[in-house]
From TrEMBL:
This is Aminotransferase class I/II-fold pyridoxal phosphate-dependent enzyme. CDD domains: AHBA_syn (cd00616). Transmembrane segments: none annotated. The keyword Transferase applies. It comes from the Bacteria. The modification N6-(pyridoxal phosphate)lysine is found at K204. One of its GO terms (biological process) is polysaccharide biosynthetic process. Residues 1-33 are annotated as: Disordered. Pfam families: DegT_DnrJ_EryC1.
Length: 397
């Protein structure tokens, strides 16, 4: 595997000199697994002539994910968005569905694209996940479900959301696109809600170029998802239901499987970089590195900092521009909230009682910093030094 765990020891960038990067540093540079093994799997798939349609690599990928997450059923899909679309359909969602606004737009789009109405709830700014009290306020007679997002790998307040869903007879689904390998009190992502989805997009913790999965412990729901992702075909090639094409192909499964074989190295590599960020940003006034809450295990795939402009004297956007000028492509994940995006904002009256103060506050403060194997621990030290210098210089003017 290309540089999954850099062997470098923690180093400190020299104070005073402005660090320079001769190449762009990106968020989520891809974890590219053992090329030899990947090419071997791809070659075998080509020899078999079985490139898609529930091939052996897809089934092996699903088996491995089943073992890893403990979910009873795993159904691989073409991407995370199609996984959520199919899951929402298969679970029978109708009318309004309560989702956080503070998420990647795919969460809202997947529902809207199915003719559902996303109703945007606020988040708890401390965790970045759905605020159960606000969810409760938004329930109407048209609400059929709740979709929580385990944002940046932070697990939603699953017990409170389960209680609300049960009380009102609602479906409860989770978008776990960021959260493979994450746990709360020993319970792994894959087992929460009626069903959860994962993403294996190239920037994700485990990458399959493009890919996704639906995970559930409900055998009937799994059966419906299995049919709907494949044009509604049941056994014997009879079309039993409406459906779409959300199948994963064998090449993606080859990549995903090979990455899963290296999950421990990827986890360790992420943790090492996170530790460098933690050490490097320690004591930088107004910059707080976010991390897992009590009882949680994260996967460190997203390195999220919060910039308190009241302390730094520098707005997050100014810091971001300064970093971009230096080839450090930090991202405003997620800004703006979905409710502020044009197609949703134009219909805000329909979708969302405003304001969403937790969402607005966090969307103005967060930055996700470069990560993944193409960013070495030494790069991380230099990024931290750059952040320190930019803030010192800007606040002095
Ligand atoms: C929170 C969230 N949900 C859903 C998705 C969609 O996944 P995909 O890109 O695999 O369709 C993504 C990201 O890519 C995401 O960040």
């Amino acid at each position: 595997m290309a540089n999954p765990v850099a062997q470098e020891r923690p180093t400190t960038a020299r104070r005073g000199e402005r660090p320079a990067f001769d190449r762009p540093l990106q968020v989520g540079s891809p974890n590219i697994p053992d090329r030899g093994r990947l090419f071997q799997r791809i070659s075998q798939a080509l020899d078999r002539g079985w490139l898609t349609n529930n091939g052996p690599l897809v089934r092996e990928f699903e088996d491995r994910l089943t073992r890893l997450t403990g979910a009873a059923h795993v159904l691989a899909t073409s991407n995370g968005t199609s996984a959520l679309e199919v899951l929402a359909r298969a679970r029978g969602l109708t009318g309004e569905v309560i989702v956080p606004s503070f998420t990647y737009v795919a969460t809202a789009h997947a529902l809207q694209w199915q003719g559902l109405t996303p109703v945007f709830a606020d988040i708890d700014p401390h965790t970045g996940t759905l605020d159960p009290a606000h969810v409760r306020e938004l329930i109407t007679e048209r609400t059929s479900g709740i979709v929580g997002v385990h944002l940046w790998g932070r697990i939603c307040r699953v017990d409170e959301l389960r209680a609300i869903a049960d009380e009102h007879g609602l479906a409860l689904l989770y978008d776990g696109a960021h959260a493979l390998g994450c746990e709360l009190d020993g319970r792994a992502v894959g087992g929460f809600g009626d069903g959860e989805i994962l993403s294996f997009h190239a920037t994700k913790f485990i990458n399959a170029f493009e890919g996704g999965a639906v995970l559930t412990n409900d055998p009937e729901l799994a059966e419906r998802v299995g049919r709907m992702r494949n044009f509604g075909f049941g056994p014997g090639r009879e079309v039993l239901t409406f459906g779409t094409n959300a199948k994963m192909n064998e090449i993606s499964a080859a990549m995903g499987l090979t990455a899963l074989e290296h999950i421990d190295e990827i986890t360790a590599a992420n943790a090492l970089r996170y530790e460098h960020y933690r050490a490097g940003l320690l004591g930088v006034p107004g910059v707080r590195l976010r991390g897992p809450g009590p009882g949680e295990r994260g996967n460190d795939q997203y390195v999220v900092v919060e910039i308190d402009a009241g302390v730094t004297g520098v707005h997050r956007d100014r810091l971001l521009s300064a970093l971009h000028e230096e080839n450090v492509f930090a991202q405003k994940y997620f800004h703006p909230g979905c409710h502020r995006m044009r197609p949703y904002a134009q219909r805000a009256g329909l979708h969302t009682p405003l304001p969403l103060p937790g969402t607005e506050a966090l969307a103005e403060r967060v930055l996700v910093l470069p990560s993944g194997p193409a960013v070495t621990p030494h790069d991380v030290d230099l990024v931290c030094e750059l952040v320190r210098q930019v803030l010192e210089t800007a606040s002095a003017h």
